[in-house]
Amino acid sequence: ETGVTQTPRHLVMGMTNKKSLKCEQHLGHNAMYWYKQSAKKPLELMFVYSLEERVENNSVPSRFSPECPNSSHLFLHLHTLQPEDSALYLCASSQEPSGSAWADTQYFGPGTRLTVL
Amino acid sequence: SQQGEEDPQALSIQEGENATMNCSYKTSINNLQWYRQNSGRGLVHLILIRSNEREKHSGRLRVTLDTSKKSSSLLITASRAADTASYFCATEPQGAQKLVFGQGTRLTINP
Hints:
- The complex is a heterodimer.
- Chain A is mainly beta.
- Chain A has strands at about 5, 10-15, 20-25, 30-35, 45-50, 55, 65-70, 75-80, 85-95, 105-110, 110-115.
- In chain A, strand 4 and strand 5 form a beta hairpin.
- The relative contact order of chain A is 0.33.
- Chain B is built from no helices and 11 strands.
């Protein structure tokens, strides 16, 4: 097991709903990430947090709102999503953030399969 | 165009054979990583190779990196049915605080 958990594993929501995805890492890492994986597209980085501060926002629409209350937890708040937002949302963590001299591997959670109706 | 592109997009071989996947990228990098993903699951890290390294081994995996050609290869020897998965290369471009993933190679091992 990777030590990164995500809940829920599956989520179906309407375009007017508000929901949140949760990620928890038990590895003592300093950096956490949200990725979006759509069919036939490369994995897209959405947000990066390092020591609870957002260091990357990869031009993600405001209907996606991340929150990192502490170094072990990461949330992705969703509201007024579109059907094209349906995808697998993956959370990952690493000891140090990418771009540092000590950049290391990322450990992924199992993902949340999101369907927007 | 993408930073990392895997080739081939799909590969089907018999159990016991070797599987080779390639990755090409466009900009200078700090390191290159290979990940595996089973259907609908999270990615699992396989191996990381830094820009000053040329080859790395881990069990049945062998990764090479040629920075002059901006390419890497992943070799899986003596393949097993459990190796069936998608394999992604991810590069960390110099100056960028991110990993950039390719679209992956879908590997199928036939028993």
